[in-house]
Amino acid sequence: MNNIYVWDFPTRLFHWLLVISIAFQYVSTEILDDAMQWHFYVGYWILGLVLFRLIWGFVGHVYSRFSAFVCSPVKTFNYLTGKDEKVYLTHNPAGAWSVIVLLTIISTQAVSGLFITDDIFLDGPYHSVVSSDFADAANWVHHNVINALWAFIVIHLIAVFAYQFKGHKLVQGMVHGKKQTSEKEAFALTPGIWWKCGLVALISFAVIYSLVEVIPPEPDFYDF
Ligand code: HEM
Ligand code: HEM
To answer: Which residues contact 153 (CB under 8 A, 6 or more apart)?
Structure first.
């Protein structure tokens, strides 16, 4: 058996920062009082993380690229029905689709937040530029898509721990980056990757900062 380096540090850091940030979004709305400003900031941060992962999915290390794991519905069906018994180093076909679904739901949740209001002090940065019907629809999305997110997180955890109990050390893989396999194929961190990672992070967070701080109109002030 070989220990192969599968998850590069940027992908692992992305994953655990995302976990902490989503947990904070739950705590900020369901447990803490007066944390809505932080709920907004962490929501923007999550948008930055997701954008980072999307770009990294094209320019990151080989196993982190979407091209390494996203596959056709037929291949996924064969995998789910047991016709394909290959052991995958990167995400398996079902896992690959769950990554896409999770990232899509999280983006929808965060983007819908940009158009809504807490009806007390805080408006999302684009609340004032959309019609009240649109804001109501975004509000509906924000309060309902969250249930799909919780459901998929539970499915994600059940799947990860099911593999774990079957002997695939996926959780350790997401911590130290390595997976055990009989394949000999391996890759090392290429020099310059940190520059690439820093540049992708800078671009992602600059884009989100512009979208939420620079481009939106000044907020309306209420007359008391
Ligand atoms: C808020 C909760 C969570 C979310 C939103 C989430 C989301 C994700 C995403 C998007 C990926 C794909 C990583 C990538 O390629 O970029 C992933 C993979 C993974 N996650 Fe999570 N995750 C959550 C919680 C957890 C927890 C608590 C654990 C472990 C205890 C975990 C273990 C894993 C593992 C092992 C993988 C890699 C699976 C594989 O090897 O194919 N996740 N998760
Ligand atoms: C992925 C990121 C986000 C997650 C997971 C999330 C999660 C949540 C949750 C769980 C609630 C409570 C829903 C309920 O009680 O039914 C909520 C409410 C809310 N969120 Fe988010 N949110 C995110 C991003 C954002 C962003 C980016 C903004 C604004 C820019 C935002 C603004 C709000 C507002 C205004 C409320 C309504 C509070 C109220 O009903 O009084 N959220 N969010």
So the answer is: 22, 102
Q: For residue 71, how many C-alpha atoms fall within 13 Å in the half-sphere facing its CB?
A: 18
Alpha carbon distance 199, 193 (integer Å): 10
Which pLDDT tens digit goes with each residue over 58-86? 999 889 999 999 999 999 999 999 888 88
Residues 175, 12: contact at Cβ < 8 Å? yes
| Residues with C-beta less than 6 Å from any ligand 1 atom | 11, 14-15, 18-19, 22, 53, 91, 95, 99, 102-103, 153, 156-157, 160, 170-171, 173-174
Convert 82-100 to b/e letters by CB count within 10 Å (16 or more is b): eebeeebbebbbebbbbbe
User: Domain for residue 145, yes or no?
Assistant: no
pLDDT tens, 132-152?
Answer: 999 999 999 999 999 999 999
| Cβ within 8 Å of residue 163, ≥6 positions away | 170
Residue 76 is part of which domain span? Answer: 2-106+169-214
| Structural domains counted in the chain | 1
CA of 142 to the centre of ligand 2 (A): 6
